[in-house]
Design a protein that fits this description.
The protein has 263 residues and is of the alpha/beta class. It has 9 helices and 10 strands. Helix 1 crosses helix 2.
Length: 263
């Protein structure tokens, strides 16, 4: 795991965009794993800015897989708070990625029992994810894998806690409008991506960052499973990095990193 303390959300966005663009230039038919929420938005906007300015690579052959999807939304394919619609609005439309190139778990009521298995098979047929965007919850959750989730879990349906529904109510009218269930990639599924790119910003994430990066690997902090992956990049602003015991070490190592090595 490479922990990279940076100076601001804008600097994080630039570094994250560099990572994605390097992958797509090297592999035009790259497979990108996409996360929703507010944390990756600056990086998504930076990718779109570069693309619109003619500075980025072509995304014409890229395939995308979303981390999760709400279950129970009316008209889920077009509901503005579905993760498919959110990703289109926040990133893929701006990069010129066609809707049929963007995949998410199928929340259709009649097919829920097999939705996880089918999504896993779809990712496998695409050759696996090349770079996966991730955020982290204040309790250490990853995607919708709440504390207590199996570290080997696969894509499946999960019940949202009252706190998670409350946290997500800002996107809806009230907590009561937030669906009670989601389909989410499991921790074991996430670990199969070739490069994991986790972004954390703000003081509210400092405890979770310290726990997953420097604490024990435990289901009580689902993100700690990332310690077992061979290629994880963690991009932090000063507030999110504030609880790290080895912060000076991470800064020293990143400053001395050979330019050719990249992230």
């Amino acid at each position: 795991m490479e922990v990279v303390p940076l100076g601001s959300a804008a600097e994080i966005a630039a570094v994250a965009a560099d990572v994605v663009e390097a992958v797509v230039r090297r592999k035009p038919a790259a497979v990108l794993g996409l996360a929703t929420g507010s944390t990756p938005l600056p990086a998504y906007r930076e990718l779109i800015r570069r693309h619109e300015a003619g500075l980025g690579p072509s995304y014409a052959a890229v395939t995308c897989f979303n981390l999760d999807e709400y279950v129970g939304l009316p008209e889920p394919e077009i509901h503005e708070q579905s993760y498919r619609a959110t990703i289109a609005r926040e990133l893929t439309d701006g990069l010129g990625i066609r809707p049929d190139q963007v995949n998410g778990p199928d929340p259709s009521p009649d097919s829920l029992p097999t939705a996880g298995e089918r999504y896993e098979a779809l990712i496998a047929r695409a050759g696996g994810v090349d770079v996966q965007f991730l955020g982290i919850g204040s309790d250490g959750h990853l995607a919708f894998n709440e504390p207590g989730s199996s570290l080997a879990s696969r894509t499946r349906i999960k019940t949202l806690t009252a706190q998670t529904r409350k946290d997500n109510a800002r996107f809806f009218g009230s907590p009561d409008e937030v669906p009670s269930h989601v389909l989410t990639q499991g921790l074991g599924t996430i670990l199969e991506a070739r490069h994991l790119l986790l972004i954390a910003t703000g003081e509210g994430k400092a405890d979770a960052v310290a726990a997953f990066a420097e604490g024990p690997v435990t289901a009580s902090c689902p993100a700690s499973v990332l310690q077992l992956h061979p290629h994880v990049t963690v991009l932090l602003d000063p507030a999110a990095a504030a609880g790290l015991n080895r912060l000076a070490y991470y800064r020293e190592v990143y400053a001395a990193k050979p330019a050719w090595q990249g992230l």
